[in-house]
Amino acid sequence: MENSDKENLLYRKQFLLMHSDQDNEFAKPLSAWSKVVWGDYELHLHPDLPYEHASVGRIEIVCLGIILDPDNPANSSRRVIENITRQVEDSESLELELERMGGRFVLCCRMGGRHFLYHDACGFKTVFLYSDGHHRIVASQPQIVADLLGLKRARDYTELLKKYRSPTWPPYVYPFDNFKQLLPNRRIDLNTYTVARFWPKQDPELQAVPVAVDRIYQDTQGLMRAILARYSGYVSLTGGHDSRAVAAVAAGIGGAIEAFSFNYRGIPRHDAVLPGKIANIAGLKHVTHESSDFDEYLLDILDRNSSYMCFDPSRREAEALGRILGSGGVNMQGFIGELLRNSFGYIAPAQASAESLAKRAFMPPLDFVHEGTLQWLSEAPVDSSILADLLYWDVKMGIWGASCITCKEALAEVIPPMSSRRIISAALSVDKDARFREKALHHGLYAKCSSRLSKVKINTTHMQEFAQIFPVPWRMRKKHGLHD
To answer: Domain boundaries in the chain?
Structure first.
């Protein structure tokens, strides 16, 4: 790939939204982007960002990205939002309608004189709100706003790059000041430019493991079928539980889905050996791809697209992933599987503090990390028994996972098929010990395919190996002239 071609990937599939009355001269460099008028607002969309626009009466919706309906998998994004505009009357009925939806999308909804913005269940289509007293901008990433307005990097972010050693990015800590990320289960009221959590209103009602497994299996398969109605489907396999759960569901669809894995120097042995075994049990075609040296110039563009908020080593695979998927392929990644197994355990609301939450999320004991975590805690549901799960949902899915997908977005389409509030709600309704100690939901999904999947053991030392190779932030620190 020539450098000029790589430069064309900058901010691919990203967007800006502003009120039409403010001074929007700063957006002139985006003259080649599509401009969509939505009520009193204007949207500037990268030409490769798919969008749909529909209205019925007082309801008008613009959908950016890809929205999927597991109950009607043959429906296109346009058909999905047309159905939504006909069926909803207010924000509450819209939120109920969105519970089952999957994909990676941003939904701009006008209801009479009210304007709201939502995104997919895990926030994989990222949204950031910027407000400095002169401009109010909603954007896919902080970096594009920073480049247009000439913003300087925030002190906290510079300090973070010096000291950070965690794969979990802290909430409410950003590369530039005056930003706030729209985390999962929240919406933006564009009339007031405020962010509010709308889910959960109460803890999910406890239900038996088989009931939850059936719900997760049916909805995940429905979302996979919706992906296959538009794209070629792929499942990236490791030796772990989460991608294996996706493979178990894919097995029920048949030969339309292909599995693949990467082999690279230093890969944990189970991730090199087990994917082929798992694919064979699931009846999926499997190909192992050798991961070649990554292109530093290209990687810097991808890092810029994610505002340098992605530290995950897998971003080095973006170019290879793009070649595997081609222009019409989607990687159905198993990100959400970690929410099925209660990875942060249980936190009693009365004992929750910024320090204890940051420690549970493997974040460093820095003052501004605790400030961000305290802000997160102030927005959390009072007395919730799923507080740790909501923290995991926000920081590992909505921040870390979303940054990782955004980093790869210019080259490869990644849609985790379990990114649905109805799926995750079913998972959180199961006893926490059954999820955590027994991995009951995973094994229930494996049984839908073959009990042999439960017997494929992973190497439990792989996290120790991962810890040895993870100080990837060194590249970011060096890039910005920061040294230990």
So the answer is: 3-197, 209-341+389-479
Q: Looking at the domain that runs over 3-197, which CATH code has it been given?
A: 3.60.20.10
Q: Do residues 157 and 482 make contact, with C-beta atoms less than 8 angstroms apart?
A: no
Q: Determine the Cα–Cα distance for residues 274 and 240; give it in Å rounded to an integer.
A: 9
209-341+389-479: CATH topology is Rossmann fold (3.40.50)
Strand partners, 51: 64
Phi and psi angles of residue 16, each rounded to the nearest 5 degrees, phi first? -135, 150
- 403 neighbors 5 (Cβ within 8 angstroms): no
DSSP state of 188: E
CA distances from 402 to 182, 280, 311, 372, 428 (A): 11, 30, 12, 18, 21
Strands 41-45 and 59-68: unpaired
Q: What is the pLDDT along the chain (484 residues), one digit of tens a residue?
A: 677 788 899 999 999 999 988 888 899 999 999 999 998 899 999 999 999 999 999 999 999 999 999 999 999 999 999 999 999 999 999 999 999 999 999 999 999 889 999 999 999 999 999 999 889 999 999 999 999 999 999 887 777 777 665 666 789 989 999 999 999 999 999 999 999 999 998 888 999 999 999 999 999 999 999 999 999 999 999 888 899 999 999 999 977 899 999 887 767 777 788 999 999 999 999 999 887 667 889 999 999 999 988 877 778 888 889 999 998 999 999 988 888 888 888 888 888 999 999 888 888 788 888 999 999 999 999 888 899 999 999 999 999 999 999 999 999 999 999 999 999 999 999 998 898 888 999 999 999 999 999 998 875 544 444 444 334 333 433 443 333 3
**What one-letter code names the amino acid at 3?**
N
pTM: 0.92
